[in-house]
Amino acid sequence: MADDTHHGLAAHEVVLLLQSDADRGLGPGEAERRLERFGPNVLPPATGGGLLWRVLRQFHHPLVYVLLVAGAITAALSAYVDSAVIFAVVLLNAVIGFVQESKAETALEGLRAMVRTTATVVRGGRERNVPSSELVPGDLVVVEAGGKVPADVRLVRASELRVDESALTGESVPVAKDETVLDLRTPVADRRNMLHSGTLVTSGRGAGIAVATGAETELGRIHRLVGAAERLATPLTVKLAAFSRILTVVILVLAAVTFAIGVVRGRGVVETFTSAVALAVGAIPEGLPAAVTITLAIGVARMARRRAVIRRMPAVETLGSTTVICSDKTGTLTENQMTVQTVWTPDDVFDVTGSGYGGDGALHDAAGAVATGGVHRALHWCLLAGAGCNDAVLVRGDGRWDLVGDPTEGAMLAVAGKGGLSAPAVTRRHPRVGTIPFSSERQYMATLHRDTDTGGHLVLAKGATERILGLCGAQMAADGGIRPLDPGAVLAAVEGLAASGLRVLATAALPSADPGAFTERQLPGTLVLTGLQAMLDPPRAGAAAAVSACRTAGITVKMITGDHAATAAAVAARIGLLDASGAREGQVLTGADLTALPDHAYPAAVDRARVFARVSPEQKLRLVQALQERGQVVAMTGDGVNDAPALRQANIGIAMGRGGTEVAKDAADMVLTDDDFATIEAAVEEGRGVFDNLTKFIVWTLPTNMGEGLVILVAILLGATLPILPTQILWINMTTAVALGLMLAFEPKEAGIMSRPPRDPARPLLTGALVVRILLVSALLVAGSWWLFTWERGTGASLPEARTAAVNLFVAVELFYLFSCRSLTRSAWRLGLFGNRWIIAGVITQTAGQLALTYLPAMNRLFDTAPVSGEAWLRILGIAALTALVVAADKRLRHQRL
Ligand code: ATP
């Protein structure tokens, strides 16, 4: 199907070529056959370059260069065993790096698949949603605003269709599309009659025949060329990489100076060189890059388990620093399950009973009598506007009614049913002939219908009260009579209903209309207000708890909604987002308030407010910018096409996995697979946990490197024998990083992680207290190993024996210290020793490794070690225990709670 001429053929020729049907699409059986033949419509997994390149990349690290040079020179000096160990370590490091990187990238790829994309196709004459992966060449694909084009498609119909092709061309201005035939030589970027897979529909609607799927699409071709895989890079990893480059240079200079001093003092060149290599090898934290990658990857997986899918890695880190979460109301803080509770007409108010979308329940007037539209004309027209000006459908399935479409519209269909107006009957009597569709900017919807009773036309409308009032010039009485409009009374009724948290939509009608005047420009002032429908949308079960958890964590939650201010404020109060006593001065702002604010007062007012009502998507971008100006780190939710700029501007853009458009998902850093606010709070908690675990690893690993470096430095400066050899240092660094340090990545989150303030992104990773702790442990390591080495030599131990004792001491101290590093503030005892099984497994493995190093003859030969005495072990454990006590005392002094 790599045929590239579809743009040069007429639409009907393409339909013929692909043996499809421009109206009915493929038959379901044929679609299945083609799926088997062409395979699923997915891109082959990105691999981030060829295998060889991926392997080679593992060696592209300053530290590895140092090691390779050291290994080569050691070999030239005939120290073959040392050289072999150095090369083995380099190889091992590369293997670990390669495996970890592949695993992490596969995991990221898998995450992307969790956000399932669907496509609309016509098969066998019926429009249906199928997973995008099941699309086949020949399918009749329907696209509309907000969607992602699922394959390469030759258009057969288009109306006002505009597509953002930046994914393909880099050009972010949407281009208009239509079905006209083009010259065969038209370049890809100018093919107006083709839609390309992965591009985003920003407005309009269209249908076309899929001509290429999966790897055969333009996107697939680019993908093959670039093969770009999402890298595990965050600001922190970039900073750490820079830090380790500087560290390498510093260490190399230090090693060179040490070498020079040694030679000047008249020590052997070979011996001094070996010492300098030991210094370099010991001081560089080899395990750091792998540990960071793994900790981030584990964090991402944990977030996914809690239904937050990370699309861009930096979000993992930013989540821990979030200070403000701006959330939509409907569907995120509330259930988005609407039930009309009250119907208001200019003369009477009706209570509605019964829940669900079935016809159970009824409307009751003030006297408690059952009311129907048959008698009360305003009620009839109010229900008719709700049911007729409506794109939702109720379908019967498994004994209950299910909704396809917008819950607001579903509720209006349901209440019409209770009042005796069934949707199919409405469609039969009043077939729709024109539509002004709903949009968040317009905030209303209007439809033009043919009236089969009179042969004339009628207009129905529904939407936000302010907007509908603008369309109306009169209101309807109970008997159907037309009266002068009383906006004051309508708005007072809305305020009353909204104050209890109900979402209020106004309805209007024009029983006898001129179809020629059905335009957005001519409608205002011509309609008759028929009533209000007030619906309940209960807050989500976990919303109040999540809002309160955010408050404890120092995060402000703000609600941004298109709904009425009083409704928004009432819902906000119910979930604890506003003081129960009601809105304090400046806590609730409307879109109109925002527009009226002078520029200089804007950021402060926005920072103070908690609820933003009747806000249009365009205003969201400025809101985010203002909050950022105030120094806030902003997480913002959004679901529509027009939310994309705000999502991109926010520090963390969050899209809804279920209700959101593909455009919003594409702009977002994180996607919630359950659309629930509580999931954002969970992700913040995980983000904080990731940062904690990274810090713990660094605090654990640095003292070893400093200790090793210093021991060698002191030995050379004093002109003494080296207490540990380069190969032994490599053994310590490699085995402990893998068996002990990495286990910290599995550390569960600490209690109280959500009762501290957000991390200031500008604050360094290591606080003063932690730097002091690192220095303290390094000093203890140097003093302890030096003393032990000298003591062992003094009691007649051989050089290999004394060195083995020193190596075991380093490992023992690290092992004890590991338990302390499980928490940065609380003591190991308080945490309990067995809270993290991985650590126990690591300790057992490491201990076995040390025994092998000490007692296996082969290891003795390889690493210049020798069996040590029982007393030496006692001394080793004694010093390690003492170190643990000192660290515990340091923590207690600083945090006053053991
Ligand atoms: P949120 O922004 O929290 O999701 P919302 O659903 O109220 O809240 P919008 O979808 O922008 O936000 O709707 C704005 C207003 O437009 C609503 O408050 C309502 O009055 C009106 N409205 C919503 N849906 C429809 C619809 N299908 N037809 C007509 N008017 C609607």
TrEMBL record:
This is Carbonate dehydratase. It is found in: Cell membrane. Keywords: ATP-binding, Magnesium, Membrane, Nucleotide-binding, Phosphoprotein, Translocase, Transmembrane, Transmembrane helix. Belongs to the cation transport ATPase (P-type) (TC 3.A.3) family. Type IIA subfamily. Its main location: membrane. It catalyses: ATP + H2O = ADP + phosphate + H(+). It comes from Streptomyces tirandamycinicus. One of its GO terms (cellular component) is plasma membrane. It is a multi-pass membrane protein. The chain crosses the membrane at residues 63-96, 246-264, 276-301, 697-722, 728-746, 766-789, 801-819, 831-852, 872-889.
